[in-house]
Amino acid sequence: MDPEYAVIGRVARRIFSVAIRYMYEGNENPRD
Fold first, then answer.
1. CA 30 to CA 9: how far, in whole Å?
2. Strand (E) or helix (H) holding 32
3. What are the Cα distances from residue 26, in Å, to 19, 21, 23?
4. Position 32 in a domain
5. 3-state class (DSSP) for residue 31
6. 22 falls within a domain
7. Number of domains into which the chain is organized
8. Rounded CA gap, 3 and 16, in Å?
């Protein structure tokens, strides 16, 4: 595993996590 790939994967994972969290929070209460 290349160090560059590890860094990119870490950043992508962080962004993905935030995106999922944002989506879940937005779809948690659709009637709101």
1. 32
2. none
3. 10, 9, 5
4. no
5. coil
6. yes
7. 1
8. 20
Ranges of H-type helices in the chain: 3-28
Structural domain that includes position 5 = 1-26
Which amino acid type is present at position 24?
Answer: Y
Q: Considering the domain boundaries, does residue 8 fall inside one? A: yes
Q: Residue 16: its pLDDT value, please?
A: 94
Return the pLDDT at 14.
95
pTM higher than 0.85, yes or no? no
C-alpha span between 19 and 32 (Å, rounded)? 20
Instruction: Flag whether 31 is in a domain.
Output: no
pLDDT tens per residue across span 1-32: 688 899 999 999 999 999 998 888 776 666 65
